[in-house]
Amino acid sequence: MESIFHEKQEGSLCAQHCLNNLLQGEYFSPVELSSIAHQLDEEERIRMAEGGVTSEDYRTFLQQPSGNMDDSGFFSIQVISNALKVWGLELILFNSPEYQRLGIDPINERSFICNYKEHWFTVRKLGKQWFNLNSLLTGPELISDTYLALFLAQLQQEGYSIFVVKGDLPDCEADQLLQMIRVKQMHRPRLIGEELAQLKDQRAQKTDLEQSLEVSHSYDGTGMLDEDEENLQRALALSRQEIDMEDEEADLRRAIRLSMQGGSRNNISEDIPQTSGTNSPTSLTSEELRKRREAYFEKQQQTEQISHLHEKPTTSADVLEIDPGNDMTEEDMLQAAMNMSLETVSNNLKTEGKK
């Protein structure tokens, strides 16, 4: 594609771009085309003067602007046709009776020049492939052989005048290169106006994005600071949770150690440190011990009233999980009650830890 010469639109010089894209080089300039247009104007003036310079038709002709060019840079079909005669090329109207009698398949031609509302562009075969070299496009557009006839028919329906370029075109680098290789086009070129509109939209979107970033304080870094602060808070919360679990486990280990040592209620209260909070292991242990001891003495009194066979009271298995057939001292029973209360405390702590 880089080897294909393609002039893009500048002002209203589409006739110049059409000719140069056809010939694949900077062969014509506005000055040269203007010279051809002035020459055509002079030839027309001479023909009109043959009827008399004092005639009404001649005076009207002189007052009218040139039909071959204007100040915008437009050039007529006569200017283009005369410019091509220098290269031995001729233009034939594509849908004219003369051309239709030839019965030539468009694919067997070499190039076309198309015109609609003062806009000119070239469709040319380079190597073995067809290209739309419209100066309004951002680059050459590849046209397949099967699509060429449909493309020309579509242009005719839209009101275009199509001319077949007859004769031998000058040699060019792109034609020689594309005789040996075939190219593929992944994305078709856009119209120049569409590309400019897209660039404007991208710039507008970029401006909107920058404004939104300024509002969110992305430039001064406060957004990043807020995120870091949230991460820090989460880390501290997890740390506090781990510390609380470690404290509960430590309290449980101390309570088990005291129970195995056979410590009394006062020893437990003194050895287990007091902690702040509603679920303190120390307060639960003391309360549980108190309730278990009260239940133990009440059961002891009931047993003494019912049975006088034993001098020492016994307890049922469903209260302290001790075999009633064995004689136990008061110290053994107290130790069993403490073990059961500590087991209850341990279960409570595990339940709280799961929550």
From TrEMBL:
Active site per UniProt: C14, C14 (nucleophile), H119, H119 (proton acceptor), N134
Reaction(s) this enzyme catalyzes, per UniProt: Thiol-dependent hydrolysis of ester, thioester, amide, peptide and isopeptide bonds formed by the C-terminal Gly of ubiquitin (a 76-residue protein attached to proteins as an intracellular targeting signal)
Span of the signal peptide: none
Gene3D superfamilies, sorted: 3.90.70.40, S15/NS1, RNA-binding
Ranges where the record places region Disordered: 263-287
Assigned EC number: 3.4.19.12
Subcellular location: Nucleus
Any Pfam family the entry gives: UIM
Record's protein name: ubiquitinyl hydrolase 1
